[in-house]
Amino acid sequence: MSTESTGLIGDSGSNQATPFAEVSPSLYNPELAPTKREGRRWSAYNIFTLWANDVHSLGNYSFAIGLFALGLGGWQILLALGLGGVFLFLLLSLSGFMGEKTGVPFPVMSRISFGTRGAQIPGLIRGAIAIAWFGIQTYLASVVLRILIIALAPSAETLDSNSFLGLSTLGWISFVALWVIQVIIVSYGMEMIRRYEAFAGPVILFTMIALAIWMLSKADWTIAWTTPDSLTGADMWLQIIGGASLWVAIYGTFVLNFCDFTRNATSKRAIVKGNFWGIPLNMLVFGAIVITLAGAQFRIDGRIIEAPADIVQEVPNTLLLVLAALALLILTVAVNLMANFVAPIYALNNLFPKQLNFRRAAFISAVIGLVILPWNLYNSPAVINYFLGGLGAILGPLFGIIMADYWLVRRSNINVPALFTTDANGEYHYANGVNMRAVVALVITAVAALLMAFVPAFKVVSEFSWFIGAGLGAIVYLVVADRRGPFNDVSGEPIAVASTH
């Protein structure tokens, strides 16, 4: 694709042809370009398998089992997850439709509301969070791999007693092995990620269901639906609603950059169908597994587990333990690829479109995820709470601003070619490429979000901070937004590239 485009594109809002400016190489490369509609490959099944993997992540299991520990019983946990699933279905469908229509990734999508240069702000916030969690999740997976290696070769335990930069020799071997595997998968692009997710989804579902059945058999086919400390009345309902809200907040990153995947979706119908089976329905299956695992263990010995790994370690058969550990590794890699690897790749491409492609950006992201020594980050509450927690708090306002601009101000009328031009008259050039109205709205609402996250006085509403932040972001932006238009709806097909993802 040439970095220069000429000609006319039909404006759906009028019968006249609308010229578009020259595509700038500082904003355009094949990774950032819109994808052609013909040849897109992400079907409803592919979108479903994204959620089949991500919903069943180890972190999500720890969160949901934690609801049991906080005093919610079986039906209350299902209700909390069900409510969260309905909210997520709606939010992710709105976010996904944006990608299906425009064919562009999140950093380019952010140019609509923040400007061609201002889009670096949301892109870098999302990318920084993702890179840090990529490293942390790789480390957590390496812990499982260490357990697996020692189970297969007990003599390897001698390599696990020293320490260099915070990891033992076996720890470094495990981490680097998983790091290399992920880099290899991603080096083949989004198509390989799509195939891996499609493979991993059924493996994870089968494994977790099998683990739940095994635990149920150990508990004589009965479970504890509640604990002696179960909540009742108003406290119970507040915990249910708070749990649903936190469940949505967990996906605060994904609702922002879901367009990274749906830009390759075959249709809006595929997004709705994939989301429906993958989110509310899959989350109920997830909830049933959580209740079975936690309730069965509590029935057996009165102990509340923290994660599925606690159960895997107790599998008496070595072969079954190995298979279960492998499934957890497959799962963690699948979640890491989709949730934490794709976002920084596009963020870096948006920063350096002339120098980078998908593979180079992937390697740089992975290297950063290694050199930050993520196990030290994970073991530092200050880093997790203040750095990652602080950045995470801003995701709600970002989502509100971007959604309000796209759906309420522009009514989804987007001039896709104008997203790739530095022309001063371009629709998204604003003031030197930055929409200061969006920046001001972000600053104001980010301060409010950070106060809710860190000031003890706001602890009572902290569980609802993502929704409050998103709502404030939308409201403040709608107050300051320029509604004069015109908002042209122009297809990106003339500058689009074939969808190889």
Structure description:
- By secondary structure, the chain is mainly alpha-helical.
- It has a domain at 43-374: Hydantoin permease.
- Helix content is 65%, strand content 1%.
- It contains 19 helices and two strands.
- The protein has helices spanning 44-54, 58-69, 74-102, 106-109, 111-114, 120-152, 169-187, 190-218, 233-250, 252-257, 259-262, 268-301, 308-312, 318-351, 358-371, 374-378, 381-409, 436-454, 465-480, and strands at residues 8-10, 17-19.
- Strands 1-2 form a two-stranded antiparallel sheet.
- The relative contact order is 0.20.
- Residues 1-19 have low confidence and may be disordered.
Secondary-structure map:
Elements: E1 8-10, E2 17-19, H1 44-54, H2 58-69, H3 74-102, H4 106-109, H5 111-114, H6 120-152, H7 169-187, H8 190-218, H9 233-250, H10 252-257, H11 259-262, H12 268-301, H13 308-312, H14 318-351, H15 358-371, H16 374-378, H17 381-409, H18 436-454, H19 465-480
Antiparallel strand pairs: 1-2
Helix pairs in contact: 1-8, 1-12, 2-12, 3-9, 3-12, 6-7, 6-14, 6-15, 6-17, 7-15, 8-12, 8-14, 14-15, 17-18, 17-19, 18-19
Strand content: under 5%
Anisotropy-based shape:
globular
Q: Quaternary state, please?
A: single chain
Strand order of the largest sheet: 1-2
CATH architecture of the domain at 43-374: Orthogonal Bundle
Largest sheet: 2 strands, antiparallel
Class of secondary structure makeup: mainly alpha
**Span between termini:** 17 Å
* CATH fold-type name of the domain at 43-374: Hydantoin permease
Regions with pLDDT < 50 over 5+ consecutive residues? Answer: 1-19
GO molecular function: nucleobase transmembrane transporter activity
Protein name: NCS1 family nucleobase:cation symporter-1
Subcellular location: Membrane
Pfam family, one: Transp_cyt_pur
